[in-house]
Amino acid sequence: MLAASIRRASSQVKRSALGGFRALSTESSFTVTLPEGTYETYQLDAPDANVELSKEKLIQMYKDMVTVRRLEMAADALYKSKKIRGFCHLSNGQEAVAVGMEHAIDRDDSVITSYRCHGFAYMRGASIKAVLGELLGKRCGVSYGKGGSMHMFTHGFYGGTGIVGAQVPVGAGLAFAHKYSGQTDKANFALYGDGASNQGQIFESYNMAKLWNLPCVFICENNKYGMGTSAGRSSALTKYYQRGQFIPGLKVNGMDVVAVYQASKFAKAWTTAGNGPLVIEFETYRYGGHSMSDPGTTYRTREEIQHMRSSNDPIAGLKTRLINFGISTEAELKQIDKEIRRVVDKEAAEADASAPPEADPKILFEDVYVPGTEIPVLRGRIPEENWSFAKQ
Ligand SMILES: Cc1ncc(C[n+]2csc(CCOP(=O)(O)OP(=O)(O)O)c2C)c(N)n1
Ligand SMILES: [Mg+2]
Hints:
The protein has helices at residues 55-80, 95-104, 118-123, 128-135, 167-180, 200-211, 231-234, 257-275, 302-312, 314-324, 330-353, 361-365, and strands at residues 5-8, 13-15, 21-23, 29-33, 39-42, 50-54, 110-112, 188-193, 216-222, 225-226, 229-230, 249-253, 278-283, 377-378, 387-388. The chain has 392 residues and is of the alpha/beta class. The chain has a single domain (35-353), classed as Rossmann fold. The chain is globular. This is Pyruvate dehydrogenase E1 component subunit alpha.
């Protein structure tokens, strides 16, 4: 996978889409050639294996993946010190998906995913402090400390969904909203796991999205396990990119951030060109257990995890590329790692020191309705708990 070549593009001459020739102009522009085996297709022509990227973008992708990993490591430590409680699902190993995708799409595209959402929330614009603050149940959290690990939202990011698969029809609905409101250059990216992929609602969403030609990219993050169940034990067909039947599909090496970037860019262009939905399978791997209560080693071997870490790690993969092609030195990348660690530690400490939400019922009823659209009274469990918006 790391055999991909990055060639300095300054001296390169390339055929443009118009059929003429153009020299890539800047010294800092690179063409990454993705290795064979990066893609598998279903009723689709594969995206270009040559990916043009600036040096700055490649370095930013590296910084973003390191940040997401550090963020998850900080969450892990805070959980183990019992400052974070409840559900918490980390994405160590899967960073290339959130990072590569965000670099390829626009802020006004919509994204919705499962509970393994911290990296997406960060990439969609939530600060490190806001993500960790949310996990800590603090007022500075991205959902004001009321959502926790699975319920984070920012502009263009619709969660963070605890119910397996439930985000997929909502994603199709968001795609419908893009189309209905005439946002012809916007698409929805609806992510779900291999464990969600056999649910009826996934296929119902496929059907409606195809029927109505919606700009929806269905993305199966296949990390090989749904809790402790391996994909082959739950799915009659583990080629998740082929499961749209009447929807074309693309399987991508989800441990390669450049491949994820290129596939996401391709998907956005493809679906907003009026071709309807697309199914993508990002083949990836989570290093940790399903959640904090799962050591993650009872249904897979330590050797398997070690092998994925040492031969497929998305951060190490990009690091090798950056070094091999003279974009950064090992020492520069080490310095970046150190600085990111410092920033994450600082924001974690700030989030930890922040105040919890005020112990006042009004906090509970905030953000239930868009201001100005509230119903007069919201019923509580008992009449004494009824909340009158009208009286506020
Ligand atoms: C409707 C529903 N059924 C069961 C669960 C319990 N549950 C939580 S995560 C999970 C496995 C999902 O695996 P996958 O979709 O592969 O996502 P991953 O955890 O691998 O990211 C299950 C069964 C749930 N949250 N919602
Ligand atoms: Mg899974």
